[in-house]
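Anyone opening a protein record will find just a pair of labelled lines. The record below illustrates this layout.
***
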Amino acid sequence: MSGPLDGIRVLEVAMYGFVPSAGAVLSDWGADVIKVEHAVTGDPQRGLRQIGAYKVEGEPNPNFEHANRGKRSIGLDVSKTDAQEVVYELAARSDVFLTNFLPQTRQKFNIDVEDIRKANPAIVYARGSALGPRGIESTKGGYDMTAFWSRGTSAASITPPNVDGLINPPPAYGDTISGTNLAGGIAAALLKRERTGEPSIVDVSLFGSGLWTMGHALTLSMFTNLSWVAPPMGSRGAMSNPLSGLYKTADGRYISLVMLQPGKFWADVCRHIERPELIDDPRFVTAELIAANADAGSAILQEVFSTRTLADWAERFATLAGPWAPVQDTLQAANDAQARANEYILSAGSMELVSSPVQFDVTAPELGPAPAFAAQTEEILQEIGLDWDRIIELKSSGAVT
């Protein structure tokens, strides 16, 4: 089945995780994404081989594949005039120009909005930045750990007060969220251009995405004038609701209950945990009494949950009406039957990747592997009409790989 962006060409002049992940989403949606990499060194993300204890040898490199699947790669040294001319030729044939180069670098390499719009006045120009396109810090760079996680309040908000230091995110956490935001903005800009003929400049920053991700908590903080503070480690969750929180099972796993209407679900939970006498227990017969006796209810539930393994509870809770979930690590989630049934994990060449989350017509996208460095350089140059004599000249000058 064709993707909604079939026929759309994206020219990506970007590196690392954030903006390339937007290109990956657009590729998942059917766009032809041409990735411009430095003619000699390529995208520095290709060299990312170790994150903490996780070391990658050989190819493919999952640290690169996640944000670059399905693209084509051309090696260009955009500091050279000849390479810039190639960029303009590609831009003239593209619908979207996608970049995370800093303003001063875009100007230095003549790939800023006005430069690209000279080549193609109708192109959607999309920029990913650390801190946004305005303000005195708009020319500063950053990563998801700095702009999204730390400055965007997630680090301070998720770290409990009884923990020394700060909880850190997994790799590319803010990059992937921000990249998906940018892909959505690009899709909206393409729709606007289709309807009005007017191209847009699309901006998404790591900082803005971090604030949006924490938007509910930030709104509460601004309304109450109180900073969001995570509950201490070991606390159960909602203090007045025993059916909202984490409970440890016999095998050391955890089960998460989030039943925001405890009066509605109390009886069903009691039946599923084989404690029917609790249904008519005078401490829990109404939502108000459940809240008043939340500590007692939580203690009972913890005692019961500790008697069986998570697998046992999952089997018993298959018919439970209220929302619940097993707490899973990355390998457990990758093998989750529901994730597999919905094709949230897909093959892309010789490895499996997580699909971007949007599906169209109840169909998963087809994922291709990330390109080898500059693998499609000659193919792409021929597509814009260059003959072999000109291609050899560009290679000899170092303008292309």
About this structure: The chain has a mean pLDDT of 96. The two ends are 34 Å apart (CA to CA). The longest strand covers residues 32-37. DSSP finds 18 helices and 13 strands in the chain.
